[in-house]
Design brief:
The chain is mainly beta. 8% of the residues lie in helices and 48% in strands. The longest helix has 4 residues.
Length: 100
């Protein structure tokens, strides 16, 4: 899994039928210090993440299959919305502090 920040949405009216109803997000990677990297990825979202939220996402076969759901033709999928990140007893990110 990797950490990213939701930067936007990707809208496509014509797509593979198995992707109908799947929200697509534009993610910007975050490094271990909490700083944005210049890398971006489009990921399917089934957890309801929103703009500016920090998320965990998976790639490859882990992204294509989720228990109880059909396989999707995706390379990345948001699997969690992050509440906090702490490294060496130092708070890197807190969702509640983000919206103050």
């Amino acid at each position: 899994m990797q950490i990213a920040k939701v930067r936007g949405t990707v809208v496509s009216t014509l797509k593979e039928s198995s992707l109908r109803g799947t929200k697509l997000l534009l993610l910007q990677f975050i490094n271990e210090e909490g700083h944005p990297l210049p890398n971006y990825e489009v990921a399917a979202d089934n957890v309801g993440a929103g703009i500016d939220e920090w998320v965990l996402f998976s790639r490859g076969s882990a992204a294509r299959q989720v228990e109880g759901k059909e396989l999707l033709p995706v390379d990345a999928r948001v699997v969690a919305i992050i509440d906090t990140i702490t490294v060496d007893n130092r708070m890197i990110y807190s969702k509640k502090d983000q919206y103050r």
